[in-house]
Design brief:
Number of domains: 1
Number of strands: 11
CATH topology: TIM Barrel
CATH class: Alpha Beta
Shape: globular
Mean pLDDT: 97
Helix content: 40-55%
Distance between the termini: 18 Å
Structural class: alpha/beta
CATH architecture: Alpha-Beta Barrel
Radius of gyration: 20 Å
Number of helices: 15
């Protein structure tokens, strides 16, 4: 069975012969543990990969987003990083006041994807392939306005905020539609919505402001025969039911922040849990037995004739031996 078939069986609760896997590695792991990372990738190859965009017109960025110093992204937002291997933070937003709203220009270069090259890439692989598009309306507005301003904007609901949100969302709709016409297997969007213990805004406000945007992304995917995946960090228990209602196929979230057993009791069999194993405590601090126990708890709580993907992130602080143990245990 190919990786593509395996992942589809997991997403459709069709009893795959093994759990499909995917390792996320950040540059930190490449800097600090290059040989161990190479060994893990060789022993446990990914079933899920991302297609390159093959842009005809390269995006206008400056610098390396994982290097020390400043990096300017496609929208013109400047990120400051104090340590290599990490993504920095926006300290000076483009839109300090609403008088700056006209400074925002959507990066049309991201709409110059070479569809034929993407399709050739998909045809040449038996992996399950996700689009290289990163729709993230909540986070993008934070990059443009700054986090403090963004929370005030959401609370006040001004006309200027609605204009900015519409502009950002409409651009992401164009991107997602473009990728929906390629041969990738799934589309992708994200926003980090959770703190350690709760949602960052009220669930009611989230449903009013952001849920309709996500519905449009998910509907585009399904109307074009694609699966759709989402990532969101933090405790987002309050909105997972909404994502299920919208038809989300797979969710990457901090399962151990919310409790695997708690999530399993509410959502097992309703969407696929695309990882993860706890990167706050288990991966950097856990013993081998604690890693084994975490994987088994994930399987037991969330799996149902599929419905799970063995995703794990090799990022800052993670022990290489713990990441390796994660995939060894999934293989059992």
């Amino acid at each position: 069975m190919t990786s593509r078939q395996l992942v589809k069986k997991a997403l459709e609760f069709d009893t795959p012969p093994r759990t499909p896997r995917q390792l996320w590695s950040l540059p930190w792991a490449e800097f600090h543990h290059p040989e161990q990372l190479k060994k893990i990738r060789a022993e446990f190859p990914d079933d899920i990969i991302t297609s390159p965009a093959f842009y005809k017109t390269p995006p206008k960025t400056i610098g390396d987003q994982y290097a020390l110093g400043n990096y300017t992204d496609e929208w013109g937002c400047v990120f400051q990083s104090r340590e290599p291997g990490y993504i920095g933070e926006v300290k000076e937003p483009l839109i300090k006041t609403w008088a700056d709203l006209d400074k925002v220009a959507a990066p049309d270069e991201l709409l110059t994807v070479d569809v034929e090259k993407v399709n050739d890439f998909c045809r040449a692989s038996d992996k399950f392939i996700i689009s290289d598009v990163l729709a993230r309306p909540f986070e993008r507005i934070q990059f443009l306005r700054g986090s403090e301003n963004t929370y005030m904007d959401i609370a006040l609901g001004s006309g200027e905020f609605k204009t900015l949100l519409e502009k950002v969302h409409n651009f992401f709709v164009q991107e997602i539609l473009l990728w929906a016409h390629t041969d990738v297997d799934a589309l992708f969007f994200m926003d980090d919505w959770g703190g350690q213990k709760s949602l960052l805004i009220s669930p009611e406000t989230w449903r009013s402001v952001f849920k309709p945007l996500y519905k449009e992304y998910i509907d585009i995917a399904h109307n074009h025969g694609k699966k759709i995946f989402m990532h969101s960090d933090g405790c987002i228990t309050d909105i997972i039911g909404d994502l299920v209602e919208l038809g989300l196929d797979a969710l990457n979230s901090q399962v151990f922040c919310m409790g695997p057993e708690n999530l399993g009791g509410k959502f097992r069999g309703k969407l696929t849990f695309w990882g993860e194993i706890d990167r706050q405590h288990i991966l950097p601090e856990g013993s081998k037995q604690e890693v084994v126990d975490a994987v088994e708890l994930f399987k037991r709580s969330l799996g149902q004739n599929g419905g799970i993907i063995a995703q794990c992130e090799f990022g800052p602080g993670a022990k290489p031996e713990n990441v390796c143990t994660v995939f060894e245990q999934w293989n059992k």
